[in-house]
Amino acid sequence: MIPTSTPFEALFFPALLLVVMWLFYWAENLFIYPFHELGVLPRTFSGLKGVFFMPLIHSPREIEHIVNNSIPTFVLTATLIYFYKPIALRVFVLLWIMTGFFLWAYADHQVYHIGISGIIYGLASFLFTSGVLRKYLPLQAISLFVVFVYGSMVWGIFPMEQRVSWEGHLMGFFSGIVLAFLFREKGPQRPKFQYEIEKEMGIEPPDFEAEWREKMLQAEREEEELLKQAAQIHIIYHYKPNEPEVNQENKPEDDKHV
Question: CA-CA distance, 124 to 230, in Å (whole number)?
Fold first, then answer.
């Protein structure tokens, strides 16, 4: 049944996530501590901690970074909770961990990767792919919404800007697709038709085509039987000569009445 969550739940948890993100940003500007080292440093043991902290860290000198990430984070997370509540927590947590770990294993450059943009890409790809796989009109509408609003983000998975972690975008995008396939049988589903329910219950629906064919065969057999019976009927013709015609001249005239 769509939706699966209340508006309060769908708005509260994304707002709470934004509060935590901005608290980290405030701490980055307030304290002298290399918060960027909490990001993912590929293929290093110390860089594994970034799997858990990377989405919360943003550049303290570039407020545009966290501002640009805040709106899509809120919108896509709220959409996930509102329409996929039964699996929303599992999807979000797995998306968080998988994006960071795949980035740690995949990226080549020994630089710290920070920001929640990888999660944003994961949410977008999950919502789009899941709506397509489930073949349910309301969820397909969400897929179209994601494409319409955030479709241009797809260019972010390519190395187009030097200081942008395109590897993080790509790993988040990939993780969202993987999770959409893994959870395609869980959460909201397309309502089943009556014949699908009967099939699951072991009730076979009537085979109207077979019944029609049986009736046609029966009609053909009856027609053949009639033809056989007609072939057994013998018609005998007896010749009977015509009676002599009466001479019209000798024919008595009809009585005349005056």
Answer: 76
Handedness of CA 47, 36, 90, 124 (dihedral sign): negative
Low-confidence winner among 72-76, 105-109, 165-169, 251-255 (lowest mean pLDDT): 251-255
Token pair for 85? 């509540």
Which residues partner with 40 through β-bridges? 113
Q: What is the mean pLDDT of residues 62-82?
A: 94
The architecture (CATH level 2) of 7-191 comes to Up-down Bundle (1.20)
Q: What is the rounded CA–CA span in Å between residue 126 and residue 80?
A: 9
Which 3-state string (H, E, C) describes 36-48?
HHHCECCCCCHHH
pLDDT in tens, 6-35: 889 899 999 999 999 999 999 999 998 999
Read off the pTM: 0.75
Residue 113 forms beta bridges with which residues? Answer: 40
Give the count of alpha carbons within 13 A of 27, CB side only.
12
Count the Cβ atoms, other than its own, within 10 Å of residue 51: 19
pLDDT on residue 167: 94
